[in-house]
């Protein structure tokens, strides 16, 4: 006798969300709220410090880490993977900047530096 198939869990949010190369406008758009509730959010953090302004990042279609910090209250992900760092930074710069973000975001923040090429290498 075959037992019937039952759905026992209904998941109303995505497992993984990927923003691609974008500004932080996606965080403020209500249509993207599910991305900020996905288990894992993969997003860019091209600029990390004062050497490039938020306006510079926006003019070039990128996200500045300061903007992620500023909008951290919307991030409900269990993990946030940061990508697309400017090659002007070293891996050490990236890890230092991410440690500052971790205190603002309750999610686990991980910089994806595998294959990253810095001009300082």
From TrEMBL:
Keywords: Endonuclease, Hydrolase, Nuclease
MF terms (GO), sorted A to Z: 3'-tRNA processing endoribonuclease activity
Xref: SUPFAM superfamilies: Metallo-hydrolase/oxidoreductase (SSF56281)
Keyword Flavoprotein belongs to the record: no
This enzyme's EC code(s): 3.1.26.11
Superkingdom of origin organism: Eukaryota
Hydrolase listed as a keyword: yes
PANTHER family cross-referenced by the UniProt entry: TRNASE Z TRZ1, TRNASE Z TRZ2, CHLOROPLASTIC
Name used for this protein in its record: Mitochondrial 3'-tRNA processing endonuclease Trz2
Gene source species: Stylosanthes scabra
Gene designation: TRZ2_1
């Amino acid at each position: 006798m075959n037992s019937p198939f039952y759905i026992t869990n209904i998941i109303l949010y995505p497992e993984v969300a990927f923003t691609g190369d974008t500004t932080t406008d996606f965080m403020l758009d209500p249509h993207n709220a599910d991305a900020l509730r996905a288990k894992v959010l993969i997003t860019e953090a091209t600029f990390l410090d004062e050497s490039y302004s938020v306006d510079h990042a926006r003019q070039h279609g990128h996200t500045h880490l300061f903007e992620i910090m500023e909008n951290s209250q919307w991030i409900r992900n269990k993990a946030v993977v940061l990508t697309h760092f400017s090659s002007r930074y070293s891996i050490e710069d990236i890890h230092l900047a991410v440690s500052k973000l971790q205190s603002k975001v309750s999610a686990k923040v991980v910089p994806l530096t595998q294959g990253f090429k810095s001009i300082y290498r």
